[in-house]
Amino acid sequence: MGIESLPVITALWLGILTSLSPCPLATNIAAVGWLAGAGSRPSRTLTAGVLYGIGRALSYTALAGLLTASLLSTVTTARFLQYDLNRALGPLLILVGMVLLELLPLPVSGLDLESRGRKVAQRGRGVGALLLGALFALSFCPVSAALFFGSLLPLATSESSTLLLPAVYGLGTAIPVLILATLLAFGARSIGAAFRKMEAVEKVIRRATGILFVGAGLYLSWIYVLRPALLH
Question: What does the H/E/C string look like for the chain?
Answer without folding.
Answer: CCHHHHHHHHHHHHHHHHHHCHHHHHHHHHHHHHHHCCCCCHHHHHHHHHHHHHHHHHHHHHHHHHHHHHHHCCHHHHHHHHHCHHHHHHHHHHHHHHHHCCCCCCCCCCCCCHHHHHHHHCCCHHHHHHHHHHHHCCCCCHHHHHHHHHHHHHHHHHCCCCCHHHHHHHHHHHHHHHHHHHHHHHCHHHHHHHHHHHHHHHHHHHHHHHHHHHHHHHHHHHHHHHHHHHHC
